[in-house]
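so the lab meeting is tmrw and i was supposed to have these ready like two days ago... anyway. pasting both below. for each one the top line is the aa sequence and the line under it is the C-alpha coordinates. i havent really looked at them closely yet so no promises
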Amino acid sequence: MTGSLDERLDAIFEAVLDYEDEKTERLVREELAHGTDLQVILNDALISAMDEVGDLFSEGALFVPEMLMAARAMKAGLEVLRPLLADTDSKPVGTIVLGTVHRDLHDIGKNLVGMMLEGAGFTVVNLGVDVPPENFLEAVHEHHPDVIGMSALLTTTMPNMGKTIQLLRKEGWNGHIMIGGAPVNQEFADAIGADGFAADAPGAVELARRMIGAA
Protein backbone atom coordinates (compact mmCIF):
# COMPACT_ATOMS: atom_id res chain seq x y z
CA MET A 1 0.00 0.00 0.00
CA THR A 2 1.27 3.45 -0.90
CA GLY A 3 0.48 6.72 0.86
CA SER A 4 1.84 8.54 3.87
CA LEU A 5 2.76 6.77 7.10
CA ASP A 6 -0.35 8.15 8.81
CA GLU A 7 -2.56 6.89 5.98
CA ARG A 8 -1.02 3.42 6.13
CA LEU A 9 -1.36 3.22 9.92
CA ASP A 10 -4.97 4.37 9.60
CA ALA A 11 -5.57 1.53 7.16
CA ILE A 12 -4.35 -1.01 9.74
CA PHE A 13 -6.49 0.69 12.40
CA GLU A 14 -9.57 0.45 10.16
CA ALA A 15 -8.86 -3.17 9.21
CA VAL A 16 -9.00 -4.11 12.90
CA LEU A 17 -12.25 -2.17 13.36
CA ASP A 18 -13.64 -3.91 10.26
CA TYR A 19 -12.73 -7.34 11.75
CA GLU A 20 -10.50 -8.22 8.77
CA ASP A 21 -7.89 -10.68 10.03
CA GLU A 22 -6.14 -11.35 6.74
CA LYS A 23 -6.09 -7.71 5.70
CA THR A 24 -4.68 -6.65 9.07
CA GLU A 25 -1.91 -9.23 8.81
CA ARG A 26 -1.10 -8.22 5.22
CA LEU A 27 -1.00 -4.50 5.99
CA VAL A 28 1.26 -5.05 9.00
CA ARG A 29 3.65 -7.07 6.81
CA GLU A 30 3.59 -4.31 4.20
CA GLU A 31 4.29 -1.70 6.87
CA LEU A 32 7.30 -3.68 8.04
CA ALA A 33 8.52 -3.72 4.45
CA HIS A 34 8.33 0.09 4.52
CA GLY A 35 10.79 -0.04 7.42
CA THR A 36 8.38 1.44 9.96
CA ASP A 37 9.41 1.03 13.59
CA LEU A 38 7.73 -1.92 15.33
CA GLN A 39 6.57 0.20 18.25
CA VAL A 40 4.92 2.69 15.89
CA ILE A 41 2.91 -0.09 14.24
CA LEU A 42 2.05 -1.60 17.62
CA ASN A 43 1.13 1.62 19.43
CA ASP A 44 -0.30 3.82 16.68
CA ALA A 45 -2.25 1.16 14.77
CA LEU A 46 -2.97 -2.02 16.76
CA ILE A 47 -3.15 -0.74 20.35
CA SER A 48 -4.98 2.45 19.35
CA ALA A 49 -7.51 0.32 17.43
CA MET A 50 -8.21 -1.82 20.49
CA ASP A 51 -8.53 1.29 22.65
CA GLU A 52 -11.14 2.51 20.17
CA VAL A 53 -12.91 -0.86 20.37
CA GLY A 54 -13.00 -0.52 24.16
CA ASP A 55 -14.45 2.99 23.90
CA LEU A 56 -17.11 1.86 21.40
CA PHE A 57 -18.07 -1.04 23.67
CA SER A 58 -18.38 1.30 26.65
CA GLU A 59 -20.65 3.55 24.57
CA GLY A 60 -22.85 0.61 23.63
CA ALA A 61 -21.89 0.82 19.95
CA LEU A 62 -20.19 -2.61 19.99
CA PHE A 63 -21.04 -5.84 21.75
CA VAL A 64 -19.01 -8.87 22.86
CA PRO A 65 -19.11 -10.72 19.48
CA GLU A 66 -17.79 -7.63 17.70
CA MET A 67 -15.11 -7.14 20.33
CA LEU A 68 -14.01 -10.74 19.82
CA MET A 69 -13.79 -10.28 16.05
CA ALA A 70 -11.79 -7.06 16.40
CA ALA A 71 -9.49 -8.72 18.94
CA ARG A 72 -8.85 -11.60 16.53
CA ALA A 73 -7.98 -9.16 13.76
CA MET A 74 -5.62 -7.31 16.09
CA LYS A 75 -4.04 -10.60 17.11
CA ALA A 76 -3.40 -11.48 13.46
CA GLY A 77 -1.33 -8.32 13.16
CA LEU A 78 0.32 -8.84 16.53
CA GLU A 79 1.47 -12.34 15.57
CA VAL A 80 3.47 -10.79 12.72
CA LEU A 81 5.18 -8.41 15.13
CA ARG A 82 5.66 -10.78 18.05
CA PRO A 83 8.85 -12.59 16.95
CA LEU A 84 10.39 -9.29 15.86
CA LEU A 85 9.53 -7.61 19.16
CA ALA A 86 11.13 -10.55 20.98
CA ASP A 87 14.38 -9.89 19.08
CA THR A 88 14.53 -6.25 20.19
CA ASP A 89 14.90 -4.62 23.57
CA SER A 90 11.19 -3.82 23.47
CA LYS A 91 9.63 -4.41 26.85
CA PRO A 92 5.93 -5.23 27.30
CA VAL A 93 3.77 -2.94 29.40
CA GLY A 94 3.62 -5.72 31.97
CA THR A 95 2.97 -9.45 32.41
CA ILE A 96 -0.42 -10.83 33.37
CA VAL A 97 -1.35 -14.40 34.30
CA LEU A 98 -4.99 -15.23 33.51
CA GLY A 99 -7.06 -18.24 34.40
CA THR A 100 -10.59 -19.48 35.03
CA VAL A 101 -10.66 -20.85 38.57
CA HIS A 102 -10.89 -24.47 39.68
CA ARG A 103 -14.01 -26.40 38.59
CA ASP A 104 -15.13 -23.66 36.18
CA LEU A 105 -14.87 -24.39 32.45
CA HIS A 106 -15.98 -21.04 31.00
CA ASP A 107 -13.36 -19.27 28.94
CA ILE A 108 -14.90 -16.95 26.32
CA GLY A 109 -14.82 -13.91 28.58
CA LYS A 110 -11.35 -14.72 29.90
CA ASN A 111 -9.99 -15.21 26.39
CA LEU A 112 -11.46 -11.91 25.27
CA VAL A 113 -9.82 -10.19 28.24
CA GLY A 114 -6.53 -11.85 27.27
CA MET A 115 -6.74 -10.67 23.67
CA MET A 116 -7.66 -7.15 24.73
CA LEU A 117 -4.73 -7.08 27.16
CA GLU A 118 -2.37 -8.29 24.43
CA GLY A 119 -3.77 -5.58 22.22
CA ALA A 120 -2.86 -3.09 24.95
CA GLY A 121 0.76 -4.24 24.99
CA PHE A 122 0.76 -6.72 27.87
CA THR A 123 2.38 -10.14 27.83
CA VAL A 124 -0.43 -12.56 28.70
CA VAL A 125 0.05 -16.04 30.14
CA ASN A 126 -3.28 -17.82 29.73
CA LEU A 127 -3.55 -20.83 32.05
CA GLY A 128 -6.89 -21.93 30.59
CA VAL A 129 -9.85 -23.21 32.60
CA ASP A 130 -10.33 -25.26 35.78
CA VAL A 131 -7.10 -23.86 37.23
CA PRO A 132 -6.36 -24.96 40.82
CA PRO A 133 -4.79 -22.46 43.24
CA GLU A 134 -1.50 -24.37 43.10
CA ASN A 135 -1.26 -23.79 39.34
CA PHE A 136 -1.61 -20.04 39.80
CA LEU A 137 1.21 -20.24 42.35
CA GLU A 138 3.39 -22.20 39.93
CA ALA A 139 2.75 -19.56 37.26
CA VAL A 140 3.85 -16.84 39.69
CA HIS A 141 7.18 -18.58 40.25
CA GLU A 142 7.66 -19.24 36.53
CA HIS A 143 6.49 -15.98 34.95
CA HIS A 144 6.83 -13.34 37.71
CA PRO A 145 3.65 -11.50 36.66
CA ASP A 146 2.72 -7.96 37.60
CA VAL A 147 -0.96 -8.91 37.78
CA ILE A 148 -3.00 -12.08 38.17
CA GLY A 149 -6.50 -12.12 36.68
CA MET A 150 -9.07 -14.72 37.73
CA SER A 151 -12.43 -15.45 36.14
CA ALA A 152 -15.49 -17.35 37.35
CA LEU A 153 -18.91 -17.65 35.74
CA LEU A 154 -20.53 -19.90 38.34
CA THR A 155 -21.50 -18.84 41.85
CA THR A 156 -20.37 -22.29 43.00
CA THR A 157 -16.80 -21.67 41.79
CA MET A 158 -16.45 -18.10 43.08
CA PRO A 159 -15.08 -19.30 46.47
CA ASN A 160 -12.10 -20.78 44.61
CA MET A 161 -11.01 -17.21 43.85
CA GLY A 162 -10.71 -16.60 47.58
CA LYS A 163 -8.82 -19.86 48.09
CA THR A 164 -6.37 -18.92 45.35
CA ILE A 165 -5.77 -15.48 46.85
CA GLN A 166 -5.25 -17.02 50.29
CA LEU A 167 -2.61 -19.39 48.93
CA LEU A 168 -0.80 -16.69 46.96
CA ARG A 169 -0.66 -14.34 49.95
CA LYS A 170 0.33 -17.15 52.32
CA GLU A 171 3.24 -18.00 50.02
CA GLY A 172 4.36 -14.37 50.02
CA TRP A 173 3.23 -13.12 46.61
CA ASN A 174 2.05 -9.54 46.99
CA GLY A 175 1.36 -8.59 43.38
CA HIS A 176 -1.91 -7.21 42.05
CA ILE A 177 -4.94 -9.49 41.72
CA MET A 178 -8.05 -8.66 39.71
CA ILE A 179 -11.18 -10.74 39.26
CA GLY A 180 -14.11 -10.82 36.88
CA GLY A 181 -17.06 -12.84 35.63
CA ALA A 182 -20.82 -12.49 35.46
CA PRO A 183 -21.63 -13.18 39.16
CA VAL A 184 -18.63 -11.21 40.50
CA ASN A 185 -18.81 -7.65 41.82
CA GLN A 186 -16.69 -5.14 43.72
CA GLU A 187 -18.21 -6.15 47.06
CA PHE A 188 -17.11 -9.76 46.51
CA ALA A 189 -13.65 -8.60 45.38
CA ASP A 190 -13.27 -6.62 48.61
CA ALA A 191 -14.49 -9.57 50.70
CA ILE A 192 -11.89 -12.00 49.34
CA GLY A 193 -8.99 -9.56 49.27
CA ALA A 194 -8.72 -8.97 45.52
CA ASP A 195 -7.21 -5.64 44.49
CA GLY A 196 -9.84 -4.90 41.87
CA PHE A 197 -12.84 -6.04 39.85
CA ALA A 198 -13.63 -5.49 36.17
CA ALA A 199 -17.09 -5.94 34.70
CA ASP A 200 -15.89 -6.39 31.11
CA ALA A 201 -12.79 -6.71 28.93
CA PRO A 202 -12.19 -2.96 28.36
CA GLY A 203 -12.60 -2.45 32.10
CA ALA A 204 -9.99 -5.17 32.74
CA VAL A 205 -7.51 -3.39 30.46
CA GLU A 206 -8.11 -0.07 32.20
CA LEU A 207 -7.78 -1.70 35.63
CA ALA A 208 -4.56 -3.51 34.69
CA ARG A 209 -3.07 -0.28 33.37
CA ARG A 210 -3.94 1.48 36.63
CA MET A 211 -2.52 -1.35 38.70
CA ILE A 212 0.91 -1.10 37.12
CA GLY A 213 0.86 2.66 36.76
CA ALA A 214 0.60 2.65 32.97
CA ALA A 215 -2.80 4.34 32.66
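ok protien two:
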Amino acid sequence: MERNIKLDITYIGSAYCGWQSQRNGRTVQETLAAAIEKLTGAYPKLHGCGRTDAGVHAKNYCCSFKTPSKASPETFVRGLNALLPRDIAVKSASEAAPDFHARFSVTGKKYEYYILNSKTRDPFREGRALHYPHPLDEKQLDRAAKAYLGEHDFSAFCAAGGSVKDKVRTITEASVRREGDVVVFSVAGNGFLYNMVRIMVGTLLAVAQGKIAPDAIPAIIASGDRDAAGATAKPQGLYLSEVYYD
Protein backbone atom coordinates (compact mmCIF):
# COMPACT_ATOMS: atom_id res chain seq x y z
CA MET A 1 0.00 0.00 0.00
CA GLU A 2 1.26 3.47 -0.87
CA ARG A 3 1.83 6.07 1.80
CA ASN A 4 1.30 9.79 1.31
CA ILE A 5 4.45 11.59 2.47
CA LYS A 6 4.47 15.30 3.27
CA LEU A 7 7.80 17.13 3.21
CA ASP A 8 8.47 20.59 4.60
CA ILE A 9 11.52 22.02 2.90
CA THR A 10 13.46 25.26 2.63
CA TYR A 11 15.64 26.49 -0.21
CA ILE A 12 17.67 29.31 -1.67
CA GLY A 13 16.35 29.76 -5.20
CA SER A 14 19.32 31.58 -6.75
CA ALA A 15 20.60 28.57 -8.71
CA TYR A 16 17.17 27.36 -9.88
CA CYS A 17 14.58 28.26 -12.50
CA GLY A 18 11.88 28.11 -9.85
CA TRP A 19 10.13 25.14 -8.28
CA GLN A 20 8.37 23.53 -11.24
CA SER A 21 10.18 21.13 -13.55
CA GLN A 22 10.87 22.45 -17.04
CA ARG A 23 12.96 21.57 -20.04
CA ASN A 24 15.26 24.56 -20.16
CA GLY A 25 16.70 24.78 -16.67
CA ARG A 26 17.43 23.24 -13.30
CA THR A 27 14.52 23.34 -10.84
CA VAL A 28 13.93 22.57 -7.18
CA GLN A 29 11.22 20.02 -8.02
CA GLU A 30 13.38 17.84 -10.23
CA THR A 31 16.37 18.12 -7.88
CA LEU A 32 14.26 16.93 -4.93
CA ALA A 33 12.54 14.23 -7.01
CA ALA A 34 15.93 12.84 -8.08
CA ALA A 35 17.01 12.63 -4.44
CA ILE A 36 13.78 10.81 -3.52
CA GLU A 37 14.39 8.35 -6.36
CA LYS A 38 17.87 7.57 -5.00
CA LEU A 39 16.42 7.01 -1.54
CA THR A 40 13.35 4.95 -2.47
CA GLY A 41 14.27 3.46 -5.85
CA ALA A 42 11.34 5.11 -7.66
CA TYR A 43 10.95 8.54 -9.24
CA PRO A 44 7.97 10.20 -7.50
CA LYS A 45 5.09 12.27 -8.79
CA LEU A 46 5.97 15.22 -6.59
CA HIS A 47 3.30 17.84 -5.84
CA GLY A 48 4.37 21.29 -4.65
CA CYS A 49 2.29 23.83 -2.76
CA GLY A 50 2.70 26.25 -5.67
CA ARG A 51 5.10 27.72 -8.16
CA THR A 52 7.98 30.00 -7.29
CA ASP A 53 9.74 32.01 -9.97
CA ALA A 54 13.41 31.74 -10.89
CA GLY A 55 15.54 33.25 -8.14
CA VAL A 56 12.76 33.23 -5.53
CA HIS A 57 13.48 31.60 -2.16
CA ALA A 58 11.38 29.62 0.33
CA LYS A 59 11.72 29.63 4.08
CA ASN A 60 8.87 27.12 4.27
CA TYR A 61 7.67 25.11 1.28
CA CYS A 62 5.45 22.03 1.37
CA CYS A 63 5.37 19.16 -1.10
CA SER A 64 3.87 15.68 -1.10
CA PHE A 65 4.24 12.39 -2.92
CA LYS A 66 3.00 8.82 -2.69
CA THR A 67 5.39 5.94 -2.23
CA PRO A 68 5.36 2.25 -1.21
CA SER A 69 8.58 2.89 0.71
CA LYS A 70 8.45 1.91 4.38
CA ALA A 71 11.15 4.43 5.34
CA SER A 72 10.39 6.35 8.54
CA PRO A 73 9.92 10.13 8.49
CA GLU A 74 13.30 10.45 10.23
CA THR A 75 14.91 8.38 7.46
CA PHE A 76 13.42 10.64 4.80
CA VAL A 77 14.83 13.72 6.56
CA ARG A 78 18.31 12.27 7.11
CA GLY A 79 18.55 10.50 3.78
CA LEU A 80 17.31 13.34 1.60
CA ASN A 81 19.46 15.93 3.35
CA ALA A 82 22.49 13.73 2.68
CA LEU A 83 21.60 13.58 -1.02
CA LEU A 84 20.43 17.14 -1.69
CA PRO A 85 22.67 20.09 -2.60
CA ARG A 86 23.44 22.54 0.19
CA ASP A 87 20.89 25.12 -0.97
CA ILE A 88 17.91 22.78 -0.40
CA ALA A 89 17.09 21.19 2.96
CA VAL A 90 14.27 19.00 4.27
CA LYS A 91 13.04 20.40 7.60
CA SER A 92 10.56 17.65 8.42
CA ALA A 93 8.70 14.67 6.97
CA SER A 94 5.43 13.09 8.00
CA GLU A 95 2.84 10.63 6.78
CA ALA A 96 -0.21 12.60 5.65
CA ALA A 97 -3.82 11.56 5.15
CA PRO A 98 -4.40 9.73 1.84
CA ASP A 99 -6.35 12.68 0.40
CA PHE A 100 -3.80 15.34 1.39
CA HIS A 101 -2.38 17.24 -1.61
CA ALA A 102 0.36 19.82 -1.12
CA ARG A 103 -1.23 22.18 -3.64
CA PHE A 104 -4.98 21.60 -3.50
CA SER A 105 -5.14 21.42 0.31
CA VAL A 106 -3.56 24.86 0.75
CA THR A 107 -5.77 27.45 2.46
CA GLY A 108 -3.33 30.36 2.35
CA LYS A 109 0.25 31.55 2.02
CA LYS A 110 2.48 34.25 3.40
CA TYR A 111 5.29 35.96 1.51
CA GLU A 112 8.01 38.34 2.62
CA TYR A 113 10.02 40.66 0.40
CA TYR A 114 13.38 41.93 1.66
CA ILE A 115 14.81 45.29 0.57
CA LEU A 116 18.36 46.19 1.56
CA ASN A 117 17.95 49.92 2.15
CA SER A 118 21.54 51.11 2.40
CA LYS A 119 23.83 53.28 0.31
CA THR A 120 26.25 50.41 -0.31
CA ARG A 121 25.73 46.84 -1.41
CA ASP A 122 26.12 43.97 1.04
CA PRO A 123 27.85 40.92 -0.53
CA PHE A 124 26.25 38.67 2.09
CA ARG A 125 22.80 39.65 0.82
CA GLU A 126 23.63 39.40 -2.87
CA GLY A 127 20.79 37.51 -4.53
CA ARG A 128 18.91 37.44 -1.21
CA ALA A 129 17.48 40.98 -1.10
CA LEU A 130 16.78 43.88 -3.46
CA HIS A 131 19.39 46.60 -2.99
CA TYR A 132 17.63 50.00 -2.89
CA PRO A 133 20.05 52.82 -1.98
CA HIS A 134 17.50 55.64 -1.78
CA PRO A 135 15.59 56.68 1.36
CA LEU A 136 12.52 54.64 2.31
CA ASP A 137 9.91 55.73 4.81
CA GLU A 138 8.68 52.38 6.07
CA LYS A 139 5.83 53.97 8.05
CA GLN A 140 4.48 55.67 4.93
CA LEU A 141 4.77 52.42 2.99
CA ASP A 142 3.07 50.49 5.78
CA ARG A 143 0.09 52.85 5.61
CA ALA A 144 -0.04 52.53 1.82
CA ALA A 145 0.17 48.72 2.02
CA LYS A 146 -2.98 48.56 4.14
CA ALA A 147 -4.96 49.25 0.95
CA TYR A 148 -4.14 45.71 -0.17
CA LEU A 149 -6.16 44.24 2.72
CA GLY A 150 -9.51 42.63 2.03
CA GLU A 151 -11.13 40.89 -0.92
CA HIS A 152 -10.35 42.51 -4.27
CA ASP A 153 -10.00 41.74 -7.94
CA PHE A 154 -6.22 42.03 -8.28
CA SER A 155 -6.09 42.13 -12.09
CA ALA A 156 -3.91 45.26 -11.89
CA PHE A 157 -1.37 43.22 -9.94
CA CYS A 158 -1.15 40.22 -12.28
CA ALA A 159 1.62 39.97 -14.88
CA ALA A 160 0.92 39.05 -18.47
CA GLY A 161 1.12 35.30 -18.93
CA GLY A 162 -1.03 34.41 -15.96
CA SER A 163 -3.64 31.84 -16.98
CA VAL A 164 -6.05 32.18 -14.03
CA LYS A 165 -9.38 33.74 -15.00
CA ASP A 166 -10.68 34.49 -11.50
CA LYS A 167 -8.40 37.19 -10.11
CA VAL A 168 -10.28 37.83 -6.88
CA ARG A 169 -8.11 37.19 -3.82
CA THR A 170 -8.43 37.95 -0.11
CA ILE A 171 -5.43 39.54 1.60
CA THR A 172 -5.39 39.10 5.39
CA GLU A 173 -2.03 40.71 6.18
CA ALA A 174 -0.10 43.53 4.50
CA SER A 175 2.59 45.39 6.39
CA VAL A 176 5.98 47.04 6.02
CA ARG A 177 8.58 47.06 8.80
CA ARG A 178 12.22 47.97 9.18
CA GLU A 179 14.88 45.68 10.65
CA GLY A 180 18.01 47.82 10.71
CA ASP A 181 18.97 48.52 7.12
CA VAL A 182 16.45 45.99 5.76
CA VAL A 183 12.85 46.91 4.95
CA VAL A 184 10.47 43.94 4.88
CA PHE A 185 7.08 43.77 3.15
CA SER A 186 4.90 40.95 4.54
CA VAL A 187 1.70 39.84 2.85
CA ALA A 188 -0.59 36.88 3.52
CA GLY A 189 -3.75 35.75 1.78
CA ASN A 190 -5.79 32.88 0.45
CA GLY A 191 -3.94 32.93 -2.86
CA PHE A 192 -1.73 34.99 -5.16
CA LEU A 193 -1.66 35.71 -8.88
CA TYR A 194 1.32 35.50 -11.22
CA ASN A 195 3.96 37.99 -9.95
CA MET A 196 1.35 39.57 -7.69
CA VAL A 197 3.60 40.09 -4.66
CA ARG A 198 6.44 41.48 -6.77
CA ILE A 199 4.04 43.97 -8.40
CA MET A 200 2.76 44.96 -4.95
CA VAL A 201 6.35 45.69 -3.95
CA GLY A 202 7.05 47.58 -7.17
CA THR A 203 3.97 49.71 -6.53
CA LEU A 204 5.14 50.54 -2.99
CA LEU A 205 8.55 51.51 -4.36
CA ALA A 206 6.79 53.78 -6.88
CA VAL A 207 5.03 55.40 -3.91
CA ALA A 208 8.42 55.94 -2.25
CA GLN A 209 9.71 57.52 -5.46
CA GLY A 210 6.74 59.90 -5.74
CA LYS A 211 5.54 58.27 -8.97
CA ILE A 212 2.35 57.00 -7.34
CA ALA A 213 0.43 58.87 -4.63
CA PRO A 214 0.39 57.11 -1.24
CA ASP A 215 -3.43 56.99 -1.29
CA ALA A 216 -3.72 55.85 -4.92
CA ILE A 217 -3.57 52.08 -4.40
CA PRO A 218 -7.36 51.62 -3.92
CA ALA A 219 -7.96 53.35 -7.27
CA ILE A 220 -5.29 51.19 -8.92
CA ILE A 221 -6.98 48.05 -7.61
CA ALA A 222 -10.40 49.28 -8.80
CA SER A 223 -9.05 50.08 -12.26
CA GLY A 224 -7.96 46.53 -12.99
CA ASP A 225 -5.26 48.10 -15.18
CA ARG A 226 -1.82 46.52 -14.93
CA ASP A 227 -0.24 49.66 -16.39
CA ALA A 228 -1.55 51.71 -13.47
CA ALA A 229 0.47 49.71 -10.92
CA GLY A 230 4.22 49.80 -10.38
CA ALA A 231 6.92 47.76 -12.04
CA THR A 232 7.51 44.11 -11.15
CA ALA A 233 10.20 44.02 -8.45
CA LYS A 234 13.12 41.66 -9.00
CA PRO A 235 12.66 38.10 -7.73
CA GLN A 236 15.76 37.93 -5.51
CA GLY A 237 14.11 39.63 -2.53
CA LEU A 238 11.04 37.37 -2.44
CA TYR A 239 10.58 34.54 0.06
CA LEU A 240 7.67 32.17 0.54
CA SER A 241 7.61 32.22 4.34
CA GLU A 242 4.51 30.25 5.38
CA VAL A 243 2.04 27.79 3.84
CA TYR A 244 -1.27 27.28 5.62
CA TYR A 245 -3.43 24.15 5.76
CA ASP A 246 -6.60 23.35 7.70
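from a quick look at the 2nd one: Residues 137 and 221 are 22 Å apart (CA to CA). The chain has two domains: 3-96, 107-245. will dig more after coffe
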